[in-house]
């Protein structure tokens, strides 16, 4: 009878430990998601500014190319 009680206690302890581990893992996952949600507006701003920067770089290259071609034409005449 005593062996059976020890076995039941062992199973209960194992079950409690497993449940605590699951709860801890759930808290850990939830904690990792919070900063992502909090930084979403910042991430949007960064992506937008990167897109604007890339567009401006492309526009600048086009303007520089246009100016160089105009200067070359004027030097020929």
TrEMBL record:
Gene3D superfamilies: 1.20.5.170
Region (Disordered), start-end ranges: 1-32
Lineage: superkingdom: Eukaryota
Name under which the protein is recorded: BZIP domain-containing protein
Native organism: Corchorus capsularis (Jute)
